[in-house]
Amino acid sequence: MRIRRILAAVIATAALAGLGLTGATTATATAQGAPSVVTPSECKQGGGTPAINEAGNYCKGGTYDGQQVD
Fold first, then answer.
1. Which residue, among 47, 55, 33, has the nearest Cα to 65 in the 3D structure?
2. pLDDT tens for residues 18-69?
3. Do the Cβ atoms of 70 and 51 come closer than 8 Å?
4. Which of 53, 61, 62, 65 qualifies as a cystine partner to 46, CB 3.0-4.6 A?
5. What's the rounded Cα separation, in Å, for the pair 8 and 4?
6. Residue 4: exposure state from Cβ atoms within 10 A (0-12, 13-18, ≥19)
7. How far apart are CA 61 and CA 49, in angstroms?
8. What is the rounded CA–CA span in Å between residue 35 and residue 25?
9. Can you tell me the distance from the alpha carbon of 40 to that of 59, in angstroms, rounded to the nearest whole number?
10. CA 35, CA 43: separation in Å to the nearest integer?
11. 39-60 residues labelled b (16+ CB within 10 A) or e (exposed)
């Protein structure tokens, strides 16, 4: 009986620790986010093409697709 209680406590602790790690990862990923304005060089490094002469000056393609280029 005692082994079952210990085993149940270990499983519960592991489950709660797993939930805590998942929540921390999600919070970190959403906190970083993409910058709202990127430089032309950042746009190119992210694999995009800065469309500076077009309306809105946006980065086309790559990591910063749709972000404004300054």
1. 47
2. 655 555 554 444 445 655 889 999 999 999 999 877 777 899 999 999 899 9
3. no
4. 62
5. 6
6. exposed
7. 7
8. 19
9. 8
10. 11
11. ebebbbebebebbeeeeeebbe
Which residue intervals of 2-68 are DSSP H helices? 2-32, 40-45
Given a contact cutoff of 8 angstroms between Cβ atoms, the answer to whether 60 and 49 are in contact is yes
Helix (H) or strand (E) holding 39: none
Where do we find the tokens 């005692």? Answer: 2
- Kind of pairing, strands 58-60 and 49-51? antiparallel
Query: Two tokens at 44?
Result: 């190119």
pLDDT computed for residue 61 by the predictor: 92
> How much is the pLDDT for 27?
46
